Amino acid sequence: ISKNGMLHFTTNSVLQNAKLQMFDVTGNKITEENFTGNENLDLSRLKLSQGVYFLQVFNTSTSFKTKIIVE
Asked: pLDDT (tens digit, 0 to 9) for every residue of the chain, 71 residues total?
């Protein structure tokens, strides 16, 4: 997350035809985004409250998870 509160997610060629899911600390799904290749997803429109969030990005061949802390 940038200093101005913007959250940008940039994909690369490894994550083609992938899905991004964001959950809050209680497991509620905040958003789900599909993307096809090299593109930027601007998630700042979600106007996230302070707290801990989890991002999961996956496609048929790879996946990863990360934690985001909004202060």
From this structure: 554 556 666 766 667 788 989 999 999 999 998 877 777 777 777 788 888 999 998 888 888 899 988 88
Between CA 14 and CA 54 the distance in angstroms is 21
Rg (CA), the chain: 12
User: Whole-angstrom Cα distance, residue 23 to residue 6?
Assistant: 17
| Pairing relationship of beta strands 18-24 and 51-58 according to DSSP bridges | antiparallel
The pair of structure tokens assigned to 4 is 């101005």
Between CA 40 and CA 45, with CA 43 as vertex, the angle to 5 degrees is 125
What's the pTM? Answer: 0.78
